[in-house]
Design brief:
Elements lengths: L4 E3 L2 H16 L11 H10 L3 H32 E3 L6 H24 L7 H15 L7 H17 L15 H12 L3 H85 L7 H25 L5 E4 H12 L8 E5 L5 E4 L1 H18 L8 E10 L2 E10 L26 H11 L3 E7 L3 E11 L5
Helix pairs in contact: 1-3, 2-3, 2-7, 3-4, 3-5, 3-6, 3-7, 4-5, 5-6, 6-8, 8-9, 10-11, 11-12
Length: 465
Amino acid sequence: MKKYIKIDNKIKFTIGVLLIFISLILPFFLKVETFKILDKTYDSIIYKNDFLLINAATCLVILNSLRALPHYLGAFFIGESLSTEKNIKILKYIKIFTICLIIPTIYFLIYVIHHIKYHLGIPALTLIFIIGFLGSKSYNYVSNFKKIILIILVIFTIQILDIMPILSKFPIGKGEISQEIKLVSHFLELDNFINICATYIFILLFTLELLLLSLINSENNLKYMNLLREQNLMIKNKSQLQELENRNYLESRHLVHDLNSPLAAAQALVSLVKLNCTSDDRKNDYIYLDEVENSLDSMSKMISQTLYIDKTSIISINEIVHKISSNISIYDYYDKIIILDNCPNKFIKINSVFFVRSIINLLENANYAIKDTENGKVKIVIDSIEKDKSNYIRFKIIDNGVGIEKSNLDLIWKSGYTTKNTTGLGLPFVKNTIESNSGSIVVNSCPNIGTVFTIFLMEVNNYEK
C-alpha cells in the first residue's frame, strides 16, 4: 500500500530539520544581553539620547529576525520536501498545514527550554501565512538561494512592525522588550520619527519582496515552459524517427518479398537440374549444384530473418563468429579487430541477421572511438558463464578509445542521440535487437580509457546439430 504523504526530497527535509534544531539552541547564544538592548534603552532615558533608543529598536529587529530565520526557513524546507502520489491538488494544503503546525510547536519548545515566550501576534501569524503560501507554491525550477533571500526579506519586514508605536493598539509588538522600547519612545517624543522611518523601510522592503516574488514567479514559469517545449520537441523527434523506422521497415518488407520470388524460382531450377545430374559422369556438377542449393537455402533463411526480427534459429558461436568476420572483412578497420572465441561449440537461439548487424554497429562505434588513439584496438571476447543459475553466452566488445562520459551513459540508448554526424539509431537498434532475442546489454565506460559493451544471451543446452 502506497503512503499518502511521502518525503520526496530528503536533502531539503534534512536541511529543514537541521535548521529547526539550530532554532532551538540559538537562544543560548543570541540573547537580549548580547545586543545590550535594555542597557541602550535605559541609557536613552538617562541621557535623553534619541540615537540610543533608535539603536536599541534596530538591534531588537535584528535579534528577532535572526532568531526567527532558522525555524521559518526550516518549516519552509520541510514543507517543500513533501509530496503525495494520490491527490496533487491537496498537496499545497498539506504543506500549509505542516508549516502552520511546525512553527507554533517550535515557539512552545523554545518557551519550555529557554523560558522565552515569543508572542504569537499578527506579525507572527502573518509570517506563518506568508511562509505557508510560499511553501504551497511549486517553485521547483527556481534556485533555493532566491527563495531564501525572499524569506529573509519577509522576516525582516514583518519584524519592523513590532517597534512601530502607531500599531500598539493592535496585537502587534506585545513582547516585553518591544513594549519597553515603545514606552520610552513615547517618553522621548520619538513616536512620529520611529513610525515614519519604520514605515519607509517597510514599504521599501515590501516593494523589493514584490519585485523578487514577481521575478521568481516569472523565472519559474519560463523554465517550466522551456522544459515543456523540450519535452514536446523530444516527442516530436521521437515520432518522426518512429515514422522513419516504420517506413524503412515497410520498404524492407516489400524488397524482401520481391527477392523471395526470384530466389524461389532459382531454388526450383537448381532442384530440377540436379535431377538430370545423377549419372557418374556428372557427379561433380551434382556436387556444385548441391553447394548452390545450400547457399540459396541459407540466403532464404537470411531473407526470412531480415523480414521478421522475432524469427529466430539455433546457431553455433563458431558460425556467428564466421558471419561477423565475413561481414567486417571488407572494412578498413578489420585489422584492428581481435576475436577471442572461448566457446565455439556452444549454441544460442537468435535472429542471426539482426544480431550480426548489431555486433557490427558496436564495432563501428568502437572503431570511431579509437580513431585518434595510438595503438587503438577492439576486442570481441566470447565465453560461456553461469548467471542466476542459468548458462549464458557472454559477448564483450572492448575498446581502448576515448570512452563515454558517465552523464551520457543513459542517453546513448535513446533514439536520435548522437555525438557523430549520424541518425542516432544505431545503439537503440542494438538494444532492441538484443532484448527481442531475450538477451540483455550493459555498458561500462571510463573517459580516455575505453568502453566495454557486454551482451548476455541464454545458451541452448544439449543441442546437437
